[in-house]
Hints:
49% of the residues lie in helices and 13% in strands. It is built from 2 helices and 3 strands; from the N terminus they run βαββα. Strands 1-3-2 form a 3-stranded antiparallel β-sheet, with helices on one face. β2 and β3 (34-36) form a beta hairpin. The protein is globular and about 35 Å long. It starts with a strand and ends with a helix.
Amino acid sequence: MGVEFKHDLPVDGNDFARILREGGLLSKSTHRHCVRFSPALVIEEHEILEAVDIIKHSLIEMTKLND
């Protein structure tokens, strides 16, 4: 599971992985334009909701960087 960014953007998967890390969520940028998520095999609903919130805020930060 992951996210792929357009290849012609000034920001890339490395930027997104860094922003996610600063928000408290570890991920792995792959092939420069993709970010892979590897959640634990045992995860609780509140942890998923927290991760979704971090991803949402990180995408907002990516939009600011892209402008």
